[in-house]
Design a protein that fits this description.
This protein is an alpha+beta fold. Helices cover about 35% and strands about 40% of the residues.
C-alpha cells in the first residue's frame, strides 16, 4: 500500500476533527451513535452475505481504497470488487467500529475500527490479515447515513 493512502486518511481525519463545534453537542452525540450503529449494520451485511443490504449503505459516488483495485469510484465499482465476499465459499471480512464522530452541521461523520480479512492461498492454506479502517458517512435527505469514503490499512 502506498504511503499516501494512510497520509490522506490521516489528513481527512484531522480536517474532520477541526471542523467540529458548529452544531449542538447532544445532537452530534446522537448522530455519532447512529453512524456507529450504521457501521455495525454495514459489517453485518457482509457477514450475512447480504448484497442488497450492503449496497443500501453505499452512496452512489462513494470512493473505496484497498481491495483488489487501488481505488474504486462509485457504487457499481465497489460491488463488483466486493463480489467475492458474497460468494458462498468466498473470503470473509469482518469489522467492528470502535469510535465515531459527527461534525459541523451534523451531516458528515466518520467511524474507525478494526478489521479481519480471512481467505485461503493458492495451496488452500488459511490467510488472515488484521487491520484498521476509517469510513466517512454522509447524512442523506431521508435521514439515512451512507458511506462516501472508505479506506483501511493492514496492521503488521
Amino acid at each position: 500500500m502506498s504511503i499516501w493512502k494512510p497520509l490522506a486518511a490521516a489528513a481527512l481525519l484531522t480536517v474532520l476533527r477541526a471542523s467540529t463545534g458548529h452544531a449542538q453537542g447532544g445532537d452530534l452525540q446522537a448522530a455519532a451513535a447512529q453512524i456507529v450503529k450504521a457501521d455495525a449494520d454495514f459489517a453485518r451485511s457482509v457477514a450475512d452475505k447480504n448484497r442488497q443490504q450492503f449496497l443500501s449503505f453505499i452512496a452512489e459516488a462513494a470512493i473505496f481504497n484497498g481491495g483488489a483495485a487501488d481505488e474504486l469510484h462509485g457504487r457499481e465499482a465497489v460491488i463488483a470488487d466486493w463480489a467475492p465476499f458474497f460468494a458462498p465459499d468466498g473470503p470473509t471480512l469482518t469489522w467492528a467500529p470502535t469510535a465515531g464522530e459527527v461534525i459541523g452541521a451534523g451531516d458528515l461523520g466518520y467511524t474507525t475500527g478494526r478489521s479481519v480479512f480471512s481467505s485461503k492461498d493458492a495451496d488452500g492454506k488459511p490467510i488472515e490479515r488484521r487491520g484498521q479502517y476509517i469510513t466517512v458517512w454522509k447524512k442523506q435527505a431521508d435521514g439515512s447515513w451512507k458511506v462516501i469514503y472508505d479506506t483501511g490499512s493492514t496492521i503488521r
